[in-house]
Design goal:
The protein is α+β, with helices and mostly antiparallel strands. It has one helix and eleven strands. A hairpin with a 2-residue loop joins strand 5 and strand 6. The longest helix has 26 residues.
């Protein structure tokens, strides 16, 4: 079986596996580790039951969406199913035979963001990191340029006043 992870700015990452289950989450000890803020530490798992493949959401914070419908609990998977773990799109494939061909997957709808709230996160999003969020960086070069421009304008006005009063 194969799970292809599509990151917005990167090439797709393909995960092939033959075991009984596949764990998906943000932590490195998952079978598929996805370093994204919308992914829970232990987000979901895919496993086989009586010849079928099943997707289970593990009470993730930002949800698991199967073919654009949020799921809870267990749901059967089929060839080409689109799965969003939080805000990360993946496609599930079951190879037919011994050779694995690259799937033909339709271009994703880039306008679809699962229940995105303000700031690009789903409503009720809770970051689980104990670290404070990274502070926004200031563009010091731009601040210096604007400051220099202000000083230049003030100097020009001063020179005009001195010349006009002389």
């Amino acid at each position: 079986m194969r799970l292809t992870v599509y990151f917005p700015d990167d090439n797709p990452a393909v995960h092939n596996w033959t075991g009984e289950s596949l764990s998906i989450g943000r932590l490195a000890d998952n079978d598929v580790s996805i370093d994204d803020d919308s992914i829970s530490s232990r987000h979901a798992e895919i496993f086989g039951v009586e010849g079928a493949t099943v997707l289970r959401d593990l009470d993730s914070t930002n949800g698991t969406f199967l073919n654009r419908v949020q799921i809870t609990g267990e749901h059967p998977l089929g060839e080409g199913d689109e799965i969003y773990f939080g805000g990360v799109r993946t496609v599930f494939m079951e190879p037919s035979g011994t050779e694995v061909d690259e799937p033909e997957v339709a271009t994703p709808d880039l306008d679809f963001v699962p229940d995105a709230g303000e700031g690009g996160h789903p409503d009720g999003f809770r970051p689980l990191s104990p670290l404070p969020p990274e502070a926004k960086k200031r563009d010091t070069l731009a601040l210096a340029a604007w400051g220099s421009l202000g000083l230049g304008v003030a100097a020009a006005l001063y020179a005009l006043v001195v010349v006009a009063t002389s």
